[in-house]
Write the structure tokens for this entry.
Amino acid sequence: MSSILAAGTQAPDFTLSVTPDQKLSLRDLRGQPVVLAFYPADWSPVCGDQMTLYNEILPEFQKYKAEVLGISVDGAWCHSAFAKHQHLHFPLLADFEPKGAVAKTYGAYREKDGFCERALFVIDENGVIFWSYCSPVAVNPGADGILEALENMKGKRQRHDEVESTRRAS
Amino acid sequence: MTKLKVPVGPADHALGDEHATVTLVEYGDYECPHCGHAHPVVKAVRKHFGKQLRFVYRHFPLTQVHPMAEPAAEAAEFAGAHDLFWEMHDAIFENQESLDLELLAELAQDLGLSSEELLGALERHDYLPKVKDDFMGGVRSGVNGTPTFFINGYRYEGLYEFEDLVEAIEAELVSGKTEHRRAG
């Protein structure tokens, strides 16, 4: 398994195709939590597909104002066909050319396979990695870890805000 | 090991003895073919263990890929409100290939329930909160697809074939008895 970027690291910025004619940059999402989910490939043959699961849980992620981004080495046309087929309501990014370049900056690329790890990153409002997790490639990591991280991040921010307001008041 | 975050309780649909040594919890989707495959397997497993095993079913509909999974889950809950949850549960899985609203209405009627009442309940989503509760509890417990099984509160990672499930449950029966002896 690769060694992925750990909590506390600034999340490397990137600009990738989100549809065949649209690009998205991580820095555009500053100010809100981002869930970055690297996965091996579109069209995994099971009902328990990772992206399908996140799609079902989108309303929960939205409670934390979190933006969910799927990312694999599949091309933008492949992503759009997959997203349409699975009725996905969040962006899939194409880490396609140069292949896996973004995954490599996160330590989430499997050189010998030529695709991404199942690696999850929860990034805070300032673009710093708050939590990361790398699952064995055959195991769908589910969403419990992500939701727990978002909850902890919210708790930490609230505590921080309280300290700040007490400090200002005194 | 991934643990079940929502303990089995009165809101659950359970078959078998409350004091059984082993509790098997399934998170399932009525439109998922893998769950359809697991259905007769679970039945055989329950028969095999008899009183030693309690079985609990919770809903985990993947609505975006299985548009009938949620109405089916709500229909099972509707039947459950008339103490016919398991009858409806079996009927839905046994007719999974032709799952639509018409089928659900027909199945309700076969059980002596009013199909009009069922369709009204589905339209108003009377039982959606229960289905959603099951789903979110599953998400928090690390359910990552369907079917997902928990044996005495721990996620089961093996295949859902008869021999595999029997083996895992037998292992739990042995350790369960050991714990019991220790406690006694």
